[in-house]
Give the backbone structure.
Amino acid sequence: MKTTNPDGVASDPTRDSSVRIVEWPAESEELEALATAGTPRLVLVEEGSEPPLCADCCQDWMWRTDDEGQKRLRLHHLAMRALAHGCGVPRLDPLGLLHVGLRSVHLPHKEQMLAAVLLREFNGVVSPEQLIEAAWPNGIPRHNVLLQRISVLRTRLAWVGLEILGSTKKGYSLRARQGAMRSGRTGGFEAELDSTGGVDATGADQ
């Protein structure tokens, strides 16, 4: 089954996952290795076997099933939970698709530049000067363009369960949205928003 992101781009929900799927008990050694490496993993337990108990937030388990919808849901929730606890970082590919767990969203060119800087300091703080230097090395065309671009980027990233906190005074931080991790929903988020007004939702380059 394929899903469609806000740009109408179809993607295979089982592709580009940061979560590994492990069969239990057949792949017990691999599970141990993944746990040691801190890799997020979903354990598929054979019927009649005792599930492996683990307090690690980067591990979850379910009975082996043909219900692909349930499996995708578990995988995405686990990917978001792992991000929130510092396991793994979202990935921006050469085509401008930002991947988070089982979801992806396409970013316009300038937003790709901003996202690349924020991803390098995932969960950390990036100064406005760093963002401006990356996206507009010859200087910004007007004083509020960074605020507008951050607003566009926030809207796009909400689809994949990420949020940008902060402002031009405090700097910006990219992280997993806690509401998305708990509920699996991606619409809306709590953040200290800059007042931008009249942002072009298409994200035309400036």
Q: What stands out?
A: DSSP finds six helices and ten strands in the chain.
